[in-house]
Amino acid sequence: MGLERNLQQAKRIVVKVGTSSLTHANGLFNLQAIDQLSYTLSGLVNEGKEIVLVSSGAIGVGMGQLRLTQRPQSIPEQQALAAIGQSQLMAVYQQRFSLYGQKISQVLLTHDVLDYPHSRANVLNTFDTLLSWGVIPIVNENDTVAVAELDHITKFGDNDQLSAIVATAINADLLVMLSDIAGFYNKNPQKYSDAQLITEINEINEQTYQAAEGSGTNLGTGGMTTKLKAAEMMLAANKKMILADGSNPSIIFKILNNAAIGTLFAKK
Ligand SMILES: Nc1ncnc2c1ncn2[C@@H]1O[C@H](COP(=O)(O)OP(=O)(O)O)[C@@H](O)[C@H]1O
Ligand SMILES: N[C@@H](CCC(=O)OP(=O)(O)O)C(=O)O
């Protein structure tokens, strides 16, 4: 028997959306997904929820603008693409959210700013103020500066872990991670047709990581490994995370009504 989900009680919610949910394979906007996302998150704010959106997509949108079909290998080119794509992404969000009278804001962060007390306090004060005003902060990694000295390949461009860092720092009740897949499977479903969806995970161990592989697309970055790391952070903070299919973001309404959707990560 799984846990009672009890997600209707979640008040402060972080929603993370990956590149693969926001853009088509050719790098152009998935307008249906963005429209649904704007509508859904605005509706939740109207219900009294506090919503933070962690949105990837800057590099993918930048690639679409320059008509590139392959993600460049070099970090400076990826950073330049992110700089191009981020403003375009925000322009589209601004337009779509304004249809619902919803105010949004841009918050660009690096993973480490929450490690230092001074910058952490500034970031948390900003989030608290925006949320108290009913504004949705739209967070992305500050890709121009986000190159960790030692291991930029895994640290650069990882909004999965950033979303969990933000969710735990602002004491969110729930992280909803939307991806291009229905949830966490016992093996990579892009490779194995008999892979099975796991509906609930209470503990993450070596075996869980063994089932997680990299991204299936040209645009996604972390694949399942970084999503599991995010889930591990949420569990350690005794918070919940749901991993679900983001092709139709209004799925969040069903998730908050405790429908049996996606994979729930929660401590027993
Ligand atoms: N065990 C697994 N369960 C589900 N998906 C997996 C698994 N292992 C690897 N994957 C891959 O991870 C992909 C999702 O990660 P990613 O492409 O980075 O998405 P996003 O852009 O949403 O961050 C899936 O489409 C799938 O190809
Ligand atoms: N910050 C970068 C990428 C971040 C990232 O984690 O991408 P994804 O795996 O699609 O969630 C961007 O906006 O393109």
Automatic annotation (TrEMBL):
Recorded metabolic or biological pathway in which this protein acts: Amino-acid biosynthesis; L-proline biosynthesis; L-glutamate 5-semialdehyde from L-glutamate: step 1/2
GO biological process, one term: L-proline biosynthetic process
SUPFAM superfamilies per the UniProt record, alphabetical: Carbamate kinase-like (SSF53633)
Catalytic reaction(s) noted: L-glutamate + ATP = L-glutamyl 5-phosphate + ADP
Keywords of this entry: Amino-acid biosynthesis, ATP-binding, Cytoplasm, Kinase, Nucleotide-binding, Proline biosynthesis, Transferase
Binding-site residues, ATP: 16, 179-180, 221-227
Compartment(s) of residence: Cytoplasm
UniProt-listed InterPro entries: AceGlu_kinase-like_sf (IPR036393), Asp/Glu/Uridylate_kinase (IPR001048), G5K_ProB (IPR041739), Glu/AcGlu_kinase (IPR001057), Glu_5kinase (IPR011529), Glu_5kinase/COase_Synthase (IPR005715), Glutamate_5-kinase_CS (IPR019797)
Protein name as annotated: Glutamate 5-kinase
Organism: Ligilactobacillus ceti DSM 22408
